[in-house]
Amino acid sequence: MSETHKRRRAVLAALGAALLAGSVQAQDPAIRIVVSLPAGGGVDAVARYLGQQLGTELQRTVVVENRPGGSGTIAARTVMNAPAGQTTLLAGGNQEITIAPHLLKDPGYRPLQTLTPVLQVGVVPSVVVAKAGADASPAVLLQGLKKRQDLSIGIPGRATPMHVALEDVAHQIGGQFLAVPYKGAPDVLAGVMSDSTQYGAVGYSAAKPLLDAGSLVPVAVLAQQRSALLPQVPAIGEQDLKQQDLPQVWYGFFMPGKADRDEVDRISAAFERLLGREPVRARLQALGVQVTGLQQAAFSQALQAESAYYRNAILRYKVQ
């Protein structure tokens, strides 16, 4: 056989192998990520970034879609009812997993039974903010709550983690406040800037641009300890509150309870590898997320405790 024929056969063999590999990869099922909030929000940014990284890690196509509404229950039900054999993930947070089931008469699912926790990506500090120039400190905030007058605080919707945490704090000190619900964090911040409310309570990632610009000032983090992302901002728990187990806003991934166990473990392991890489952690921190990387067992245990907290708090404070 001539050298020309040998080279031709080698090229054809290599081409055939490449086509076969491409065919196998193309046959791998796509991964579908359903986001419980509108595009442009914090959980959406995290889902799209990690979705891209996950696709590269597993050499699979990842499709991200938003299904907002119903306090996150629309997205949760979409994932719960995903067709068998389809790899579908829910990218969401507290609202649809540990709050809505206790707030709505019939959310249409039982999240801790019908959804499988895959990974908690991290927590997002809930921060109370005021307009620049205001006399803002945790002590001033608590004093305003104790006066039981028209202290107004903007919140990104009723029964959000920020709303429940503020109700908890107010009841602990015998105070009260006027909760002003908005459609989302941008509207809360606009309300503070326009003096429609005295304070606003939002996720740090939403407030960060205005805080960095000096248009807003941080008053307190709604937590028992200071956040690593905002070490200079006092935690509300530093004010000698009786109860300090205020749950944090978190972002995480879930799969249907009926999902193939091997696929759940495969996705979980891929996320674990990704969160172990410094560039990925740095990017998430830039998005305002303090990475926790809680794996399935630890995440599930944390959800059980948090669900019990919200059930009791919603009943005790008559949150609606």
Automatic annotation (TrEMBL):
Residues 1-26 form the signal peptide. Keywords: Signal. The keyword Signal applies. Belongs to the UPF0065 (bug) family. This is Tripartite tricarboxylate transporter substrate binding protein. It comes from Achromobacter pulmonis.
